[in-house]
Amino acid sequence: MEKILIVDDESFICENVQRILSSEGFDVLAASSGQQARDVVSAEEIDLALLDLNLGTEDGIDVLKSLKEIDPELLVIIITGYGSVETAVESLKLGAFHYMKKPFKADALRLIVKLALKTQTLKREVRKLRRGDGSLPGSSPIIGKSEAFNEVVAQVREIARMSSTVLITGESGTGKELVARAIHDLSDRKDASFVAINCASIPATLLESELFGHEKGSFTGAGARKKGLFEEAHHGTIFLDEIGEMDMAMQAKLLRVLQEKSIRRVGAVKDIDIDVRVVAATNRDLMQRIAEKSFREDLFYRLNVFPIHIPPLRERTADIAALASYFLDDFSRSFGRQFRDVSPEAQRLMAQYAWPGNVRELRNVIERICIMRSGPTLLPEHLPLEIRSGSGDAPAPGGAGAIAVPDGLGLEEAICSIEKSLIEQALQKSGGNVLQTAANLKIPRGTLRYKMDKYGL
């Protein structure tokens, strides 16, 4: 439900606008002063504001400027009397969407409000598309703008048209499964199944049955015939994640499948022909594993027909802002927050951080911020301590080096900085539970509330 704010010091105007627009299904809030309006826009996700330029002693133009500073994307319709049309025109130059002269008719109000909200929706879609420049399709699209990312996109689009085996390499959290899904979604196989399995999560004794299936009675507990994942992926794609963790015996059986394009269920005597594209992924150095005699060289060359390497996030810092904006928008909608953008300073700090957990870590950071904060702008103080301090490794809570005090602070400022950081860490540890956080810090809940307000937590 769209939220609309009416800002007017005449109560009957606010009441009439609320009545007219509430009947259209909108959630309408009212403010009688510029300060009240600023408080509402800071605390709520407002889609549209109706602002009277004559707010007693307050200058409506100044109020407009301050509202746009709080939320640059806020659409504002100016309400003005006949004598202040020139001022209304000035407001348009400052970013107001439109202006209406008093008195206005209910039908005209409904029309202009619906037009403004439609414009707001279109602007948000455009922002989303811009953030997704060069993105790849999928339920969780891959976002990026860096040269390294564009190279991955080009490789994905090229191999998607073929049926060759693909080996995706990269550190944990870089999005290897998302790339595999994009290959599938862009291919002629997109209408068939995409089946994923983590080879490290299945015991070696069960992996063969999971991949190839089994016949009834083939082993203890095999009470019925079962299809394997290769059969489930017939005409589609199977994604073998963490292929480097597969044991040598299973590697030999997988090699046979790749060579013969057929599988044999456990306990069966006949082969079953399959038409499956295999995409494998690993965060291991397979050449080193080959040298250690823990990975078959012949299997490596069968898998490495078309290699795709995904660089770590620290090597493609140009993607961080776009990814952060995408996750911020996604989680804001999920949690009912009003985050609209990331401040330049927060972007700078995120670009300097090493992101050892890569995109997965960035996603988790933004999700945690959206759980604990409300917006509308992601600020440096919202970021975890390890990002603000520029450390590539998250400090252990309460351990050595857990608190980093910026240089140049006086004693009182340093104490406040440490206190704020300790409260932030405790809140994160308790998942935002104030009562539990107060107990962990051994302070009264009221004291914690006061300090949270003091530090803007």
Short overview:
It is built from 19 helices and 18 strands. It has helices at residues 11-22, 34-43, 60-70, 85-93, 106-131, 147-160, 176-185, 204-212, 229-232, 248-260, 286-291, 297-303, 320-335, 344-352, 358-372, 385-388, 411-429, 434-441, 445-454, and strands at 3-7, 27-31, 48-52, 54-55, 58-59, 75-80, 98-101, 166-169, 194-198, 213-214, 226-227, 237-241, 262-263, 272-273, 277-282, 306-309, 341-342, 377-378. A five-stranded parallel beta sheet has the order 2-1-3-6-7, with helices on both faces.
Number of E-state strands = 18
The mean pLDDT is 85
Percentage of β-strand residues: 5-15%
Q: Which regions contain 5 or more consecutive residues with pLDDT less than 50?
A: 129-134, 393-403
Distance between the termini: 27 Å
Determine the fraction of residues in helical runs and give it as a percent range. Answer: 40-55%
Q: Which value, in Å, is the CA radius of gyration?
A: 29 Å
SS-derived structural category: alpha/beta
Basic shape = elongated
The largest sheet has its strands arranged as 2-1-3-6-7
- Please count the helical segments: 19
The biggest beta sheet reads: 5 strands, parallel
